[in-house]
Amino acid sequence: MYFKTFKYAAAALLTSAIMAANASAPITLVVPFAPGGSQDAIGRYIADKLGNELNTTVIVKNVGGAGGVIGTSEVARAKGDGRTLLLTTGGSITIAPYTQTKLPYDVNRDLTPVALVADTPMAIAVKSDSQLQSLQDLIDTARAHPKKLSYASTGAGTVSNLTAELLGQSMKMELLHVPYRGASPGLIDLMGGEVQLIFSSMASLVPAQKSGDIRILAAFSDIHADNRTKIHTVAEVTQNKALDVPVWIGVMAPKSTAPDLVTKMGRAVQQLCATQDARRFFAEQGATAICGSAENLQKLINSDSHRWKSVIAKIDNTKKE
């Protein structure tokens, strides 16, 4: 009994010492994407506000490449001293483990959730003059004419590609995949009539919808494109809750980070995320503030991993047939 009490007391003292030592030391927030784009903007916003919450400086370090894997790998190898955080999305956490054979980290072994920040909804859009007036039109046409409808994604194995595959598998229909290097070239070809559909983030689609060039058929999360327009969700139209697919942004830390430090930083992220200013800023980036706990993020990672593992396995099986 005495030994256990001593061990817990020693652990508490060590954590307090780490907090004190790092009270004014800068924190590096690794953003595993190139500068620009909604994730980078959200990362810089969080860094600025988090510094005030923790009474220190938070520096953004962009480490792009391999769909977020390179930056994620850097954080996975970092010391758990509370001075390194990762702004992350599902690409490197819940998709890469099933698409890459030699991933340089293990999510469960090397990383720990800190907080769930936001949802950047995925949506389906068509050219404004498309004969497809609704998601149901899309489903009916694709079922009647397999692979007649082509869709643009932001790349093979990305969340936009896998979300389209999930819809196809769930609705028993086949679409023709045309991968692009990002949303912009896919949108250009959509408007030029080279492809009939695009699966991309709401952030990249809403400006083109507001200009009248495209029409959003449905979103994979419950979100309003603006204060006036309600975008129906895929889950609503299909009556299939499995098609409610959040495209989340979260904060993680090296696994060895002391639990008290993780809790402290997680609460700070949740507090800044819950402000009206944060909600307004996130909305400008096409994101919805979620402000969830580390437990919320872990639950989402678990469900995301299960979903994408199944989708990718079915794709692989189809290729073998």
Name its key features.
alpha/beta, D-Maltodextrin-Binding Protein, domain 2, 6-stranded mixed β-sheet, 5-stranded mixed β-sheet, globular
Protein model, in words:
The protein has 321 residues and is α/β, with parallel strands linked by helices. The protein folds into two domains: 2-119 and 247-311, D-Maltodextrin-Binding Protein, domain 2 (3-Layer(aba) Sandwich), CATH 3.40.190; 122-245, 3-Layer(aba) Sandwich (D-Maltodextrin-Binding Protein, domain 2). 49% of the residues lie in helices and 19% in strands. The chain contains 13 helices and eleven strands. It has a six-stranded mixed sheet, sandwiched between helices. The chain has a five-stranded mixed sheet with strand order 7-6-8-5-9. Helix 2 (38-54) crosses helix 11 and helix 4 (90-99) runs parallel beside helix 13 (294-320). The chain is globular and about 60 Å long. The termini are far apart.
